[in-house]
């Protein structure tokens, strides 16, 4: 009797192997992924391996230096070890050209988090391969972002309650999590989750090809960004892994079709889990909607397999859930057509239409008149809070959907005085005034060295598409209150951000035809204002602007929307 291991919490839906037609479609899928640039070159792969080898040496040097400072003998300091682990797309084997490497540095108990941001920081800065470095010690998971030999690396650190970290160490034993603080637990979670996912899929090669396709699709359709309320890389990986468990002998092509079908029909908020949720040795929260109200509020829960299990999709809002489900429905239709030879795989990967989709958009502009590092911190913090603005907006009667775009747009201009920086901020972000910016020097990678002594105004813009209910014409939607609340939330996050000479936040609405040119790629046709025959009769077919609200610490612009009709 043929025994087949059962993966996941239920038996498979089908154990059928591939047909000749499915194999052919699978080969076409791999060819399309190659054409789309999903795979990196052998040279790039070799460079990554080389960089990780150097980082391993630097991790050991880091632990050695800290150990010597603690008066350990030379032998003990060397034996203290230190080891790097990768996680995320690189560890899963689905990284593409130019993608970053998520890297964890595991250190023994006498090495402190402050040492990571002082001693290791100093070691990294002394290396000729280092091109960029940005430490973020107060992040949810403290991190040092670097560019090293042309590769972007996110470095995080975790301390175990062990005197030595040998090269043979693995992180699978949950007893290693004893006596750790929350930040160390969070740092270890990435590697532990990634390793478990790979253990829980029947055929890692099938999983990897299917996941590459889903990552490409989710990026193209603009539904890949944990920070903005969409699934991130780990969540998409777990969703693909669950479908692989249900069809253990299927090709990646079949997995994709079943992925769209099963997940669009899924009875959310029933969770997607890859194995039974485990208990463990710690007094920590494990995802459990029966106990925790917060867990019951998760709209599309996807649960990590490694103890302590958490929900990887807690950021999903009502609006982003609707957008995701719509895209899954489209995915069924397209893959069905691919399987009946009416369409090809390239049709699955067509670009989103976000900047053509809505009549009204909200722009959130975080600007910094200061250093690049100040800009990264301020814009990163505002970016991490945009989801909360989406929650406030979608709760308003009259707003059917508040759809955040997944990528911020970055710009920087050189300026001489406050009048110029004000003019830049007033005119940026609108098609009708962007011509006014042509007299200012735009900072690019090419000229950044030549402009290093000039004052710079950095602008990071995030977009939220608004689907407004057009039924009751007289009703006005006042977005002033949520915008002001969001403005104050960001300003008050940190005392430093209350300095309006450096940091400003501008929130304003823009109509589709007035979106700035930067949101459209070369060759794309920008939308034009439609002439309305009903305009004279229907004065309510406009957003009506409320007075600009000037907080003493900066600028926030709220608006009220008169109910939009088909103008």
UniProtKB/TrEMBL annotation:
It catalyses: RNA(n) + ATP = RNA(n)-3'-adenine ribonucleotide + diphosphate. InterPro entries: NT_sf (IPR043519), NuclTrfase_I-like_C (IPR011068), PolA_pol_cen_dom (IPR007012), PolA_pol_NTPase (IPR048840), PolA_pol_RNA-bd_dom (IPR007010), PolyA_polymerase (IPR014492). One of its GO terms (cellular component) is mRNA cleavage and polyadenylation specificity factor complex. Keywords: ATP-binding, Magnesium, Manganese, Metal-binding, mRNA processing, Nucleotide-binding, Nucleus, RNA-binding, Transferase. Residues 8-201 form the Poly(A) polymerase nucleotidyltransferase domain. It is found in: Nucleus. Residues 552-567 have a biased composition (Polar residues). Residues 353-529 form the Poly(A) polymerase RNA-binding domain. Residues 528-537 have a biased composition (Basic residues). One of its GO terms (molecular function) is magnesium ion binding. Its EC number is 2.7.7.19. Transmembrane segments: none annotated. Mg(2+) 2 binds at residues 100, 102, 154. Binds 2 magnesium ions. Also active with manganese. Polymerase that creates the 3'-poly(A) tail of mRNA's. This is Poly(A) polymerase.
């Amino acid at each position: 009797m043929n025994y087949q291991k059962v993966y996941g919490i239920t038996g498979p839906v089908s154990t059928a192997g591939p047909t000749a037609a499915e194999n052919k479609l699978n080969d076409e899928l791999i060819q399309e992924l190659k054409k789309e640039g999903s795979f990196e070159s052998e040279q790039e792969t070799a460079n990554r391996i080389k960089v990780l080898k150097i980082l391993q040496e630097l991790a050991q040097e880091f632990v050695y230096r800290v150990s010597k400072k603690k008066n350990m003998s030379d032998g003990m300091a060397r034996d203290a070890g230190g080891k790097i682990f990768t996680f995320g797309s690189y560890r899963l084997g689905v990284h593409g050209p130019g993608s970053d490497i998520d890297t964890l540095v595991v250190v023994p108990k006498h090495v402190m988090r402050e040492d990571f941001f002082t001693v290791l920081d100093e070691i990294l800065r002394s290396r000729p391969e280092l091109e960029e470095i940005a430490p973020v010690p107060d992040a949810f998971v403290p991190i040092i972002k670097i560019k090293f030999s042309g590769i972007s690396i996110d470095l995080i650190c975790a301390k175990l309650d062990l005197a030595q970290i040998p090269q043979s160490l693995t992180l699978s034993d949950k007893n290693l999590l004893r006596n750790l603080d929350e930040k160390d637990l969070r740092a270890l979670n990435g590697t532990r989750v990634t390793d478990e996912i790979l253990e829980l899929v029947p055929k890692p090669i099938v999983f990897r090809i299917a996941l590459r396709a889903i990552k490409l699709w989710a990026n193209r359709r603009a539904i890949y960004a944990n920070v903005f309320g969409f699934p991130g890389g780990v969540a998409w990986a777990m969703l693909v892994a669950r479908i692989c468990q249900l069809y253990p002998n299927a090709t990646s092509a079949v997995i994709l079709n079943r992925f769209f079908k099963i997940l669009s029909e899924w009875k959310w908020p029933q969770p997607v889990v890859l194995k039974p949720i485990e208990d463990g040795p710690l007094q920590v929260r494990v995802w459990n909607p029966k106990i925790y109200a917060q867990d019951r509020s998760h709209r599309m829960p996807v649960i990590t397999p490694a103890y302590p299990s958490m929900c990887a999709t807690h950021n999903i809002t009502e609006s982003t859930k609707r957008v995701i489900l719509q895209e899954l429905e489209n995915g069924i239709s397209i893959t069905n057509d691919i399987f009946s030879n009416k369409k090809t795989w390239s049709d699955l990967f067509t670009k989103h239409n976000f900047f053509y989709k809505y009549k009204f958009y909200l722009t959130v502009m975080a600007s910094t008149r200061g250093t690049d590092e100040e800009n990264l911190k301020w814009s990163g913090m505002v970016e991490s809070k945009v989801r909360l603005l989406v929650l406030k907006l979608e709760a308003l009667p009259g707003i059917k959907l508040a759809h955040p775009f997944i990528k911020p747009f970055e710009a920087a201009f050189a300026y001489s005085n406050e009048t110029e920086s004000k003019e830049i901020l007033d005119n940026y972000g609108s098609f009708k005034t962007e011509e006014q910016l042509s007299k200012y020097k735009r900072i690019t990678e090419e000229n950044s060295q030549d402009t290093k002594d000039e004052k710079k105004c950095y602008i990071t813009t995030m977009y939220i598409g608004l689907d407004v209910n057009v039924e009751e014409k007289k009703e006005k939607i006042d977005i002033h209150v949520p915008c002001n609340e969001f403005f104050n939330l960001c300003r008050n996050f940190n005392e430093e951000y209350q300095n309006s000479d450096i940091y400003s936040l501008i929130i304003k609405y823009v109509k589709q035809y007035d979106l700035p040119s930067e949101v459209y790629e070369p060759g794309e046709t920008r939308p034009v204002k439609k002439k309305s025959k009903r305009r004279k009769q229907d004065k309510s077919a406009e957003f009506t602007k409320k007075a600009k609200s000037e907080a003493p610490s900066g600028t926030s612009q709220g608006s009220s929307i008169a109910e939009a009709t088909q103008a």
